[in-house]
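Lecture notes, structural biology module. Today: joint structure prediction for complexes of three components.
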Amino acid sequence: MKFWRRPLDIDEIKIPKGEVHIIKDRCKGCGFCVEYCPKEVLEISEEFNKMGYHPPYVKNPDNCLNCQLCEMLCPDFAIYCIEKEEEGIIA
Amino acid sequence: MKTNDKGVLTGTHNLSGNQACAEGALAAGCRFLSAYPIPPSIEVIERFTQRAKEVDAIFIQMEDEISVLAAVLGASWAGKKAMTVTSGPGLSLMMEHIGLGVMLETPCVIVNVQRCGPSEGIPNSPSQGDVMQARWGSHGDYEIIVIYPNSPQEMFTQTIEAFNLSEKYRTPVVILSDESLARMVEKVVIPPANKIILEPRKHYKGPKNKYLPFKYDKDLVPPMVNAGEGYKFHITGLTHDEKGYPVMNEECQELNVHRLVRKIRNYVDNITNIEEKNLSDAEIVVVSYGITSRTVDKALKQARKDGINVGSIRLITVWPFPDKEIMKLSKKVKAFIVPELNFGQILLEVQRCNYGNAKIRFVEYGHEEIQNSDPILNAIRSLTK
Amino acid sequence: MKNVKHPMDFYLRMDRMPHIWCTGCGIGLTATAFVAAMEKAKLDTNKVCVVSGIGCTGRFAGYIKLDSFHTTHGRAIPFATGLKLANPELKVVVVSGDGDLISIGGNHFIHAARRNIDMVVICVNNFIYAMTGGQVAPTTPLTAYTTTSPYGNFEPPSNIPQIAESSGAVYVARWTALHIRRLTNSIFEALNKPGFTVVEVISPCAQYYSRINRLGDGLDMMKFYHENSQIKHWEPTDNLYIDYQKEIIVGKFVDRERPTYSESYKKWLAE
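The predicted structure, tokenised, for the full assembly:
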């Protein structure tokens, strides 16, 4: 991330990291999580789940910021994020 | 279970049928009334609301009869004994929710004060035109209990009985009345609270996490719980399994819906309440119910004076119909007389149970001449010739 | 898959998952928002009841692990009224569709709002009667196609926030299913506010409304909402008419105080 000036609290703020968990067999392949992820972490996979839909898979796991928008936007309760315990990366 | 003191107006009173109904409901522990004002049932609401404050009862006048019965079902599920009162046009509107009440197995009482029909008819004249509707009005296969008292005293006692039956069998119960019965004023003796026996709601007693809303006991009635007690149950009007979840296949229909019919039919002997008079040597039997049974008494006395062996059966529970009793009698007696304030509704039931054994004479009454016992007397006399 | 436990599973009837709602249906999003709002509000889950009517949204009660009731078409609100009045400690939430609440249930909606009965009404508006195959609803926009308006709908649609406000509701908000966090917040505010509160959720119907009208799938409709919804808080409710595939105004429109039915009843009893 590019800063125009150095923020005064840059040493205190840590950008969180998240880990995405997908419950594949609940997914109905609507694509909301893929479309609205702000960091393009997810992508529709080629595999089929039990119901015949294409669930998403985590394409760029390092990009996830634990914003939990995918968890909120999933109509099927098939995806959720957990905050990763390790140190966050600054910029 | 004894009733709570607050609702019981112990003593001797002069009450109309409608007022006696309200007092009976309060004595039975009913603390929720939802209604839409329709003559001739309005006095029940008025009496209930006058007494509501002293017994902490709730009354709400909903926007139409459809929502009235929905609110009654909701109140019953929240744990209160609930009732509604209406007349013919209102009962027609309530039909869908009677079906829902049967399907959800919700105890509640619906009082129908019959008036002349069809449609608006004559609001302040009696009739017995809703007898079949009370039984068959809603769609689908179901059984329901219908009670029809014939005096204000009986309105009081039978309203309490209606609540007891509804709790015992977890079913809506309809009380039929009519404009004459609703407005006639007679002596009503209300016993002390400790003499009134109530049927308690069959509450589930097992562990919370093992509760199944429609798992029935030996008597085919599942124990009930109230909303807000932490059981987190789900119930639906769709055909459901024991858990209350919709499972729409034939097996489930047989297990859980046909059971609703068998739940009442298997216990017909316990539910049926009829008053028999002079049947031992009767050759002619008058089958009556409700307001016409008052006129029958006078005719019977005169007929016996004339030496005719006449007896009577009065139906206090009109549905389930006492098939067995009528069938047995049909083999013994010469004739049945059925006086009704309609075009012949219980007549059809008597004909059905008669199997062609005895003669059947129908005495059709009009609402103007309901007190006149001559038509019945003439029918009795004509059958002896 | 490390653990199969979704954090919202506590509120769901897991033995009935996956639910019957279609791919891309907004009712699932309403469920997510509701569960998240319940989590935030920290209400006593033993005392919350969910009542729903008939229809796609009517199935909502069957998936939520609270005392839930699936009643007749249009009569969820009077049933909920009975529950609330008989036991005032219960928190009653009615979740139902636009046809169920405004068409057959319109009368009850208006009167419960007038009485200000303490309940939360979440109306999922997908502009169509979806469960029965896609018939026209009172909220279907002008010129839209449905199975019972095969030449385009010529009846002007209802404006749900306007009906709610003019009948006396104390809190009226409208969000699309995409505005998921704002919707969660609205439901949270509605749960905590005493009185008749209404939250309308504009939801895509991926199988009927969007197919018959060639609007793409659920995702395409969501993208449309993203581009064409405008947040205008406190907008007068008569401006909230929805035209076919035009701008949708969302936001919180009414937040006022009125004595609830229970409060007035208690006052009357005390006299």
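Point to remember: Residues 23 and 78 of chain A are 5 Å apart (CA to CA).
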